[in-house]
């Protein structure tokens, strides 16, 4: 019988959950899809997230290619809008499926 060796460092699911997992990333993806795509709007929609955590999550998602940060006005006060990339948009069906699964079982 062949021994199965699992290495979480080289796992598709580990990569997926690193990019989309945690408390906030799926919520951020959902909200940006609904045009809640400015920092202040995201803060209002998620009142228990801190500015530091939201900034960190947005930066990570941008680095992972899920979001684009678009600076509309470069001088103070800056106007920044976040948009989903094609990679981020491709998660829509998956997120909708998770929402439906949650409605069904919870």
UniProtKB/TrEMBL annotation:
UniProt keyword annotation of Protease present: no
Official protein name in the record: Helix-turn-helix domain-containing protein
Domain (HTH hxlR-type) ranges: 11-106
InterPro entries tied to this protein: HTH_HxlR, WH-like_DNA-bd_sf, WH_DNA-bd_sf
SUPFAM superfamilies: Winged helix' DNA-binding domain (SSF46785)
Pfam families: HxlR
Organism of derivation: Paenimyroides ceti
Origin organism lineage: Bacteria, Pseudomonadati, Bacteroidota, Flavobacteriia, Flavobacteriales
Domain of life: Bacteria
Keyword field: DNA-binding, Transcription, Transcription regulation
Gene3D superfamilies: Winged helix-like DNA-binding domain superfamily/Winged helix DNA-binding domain (1.10.10.10)
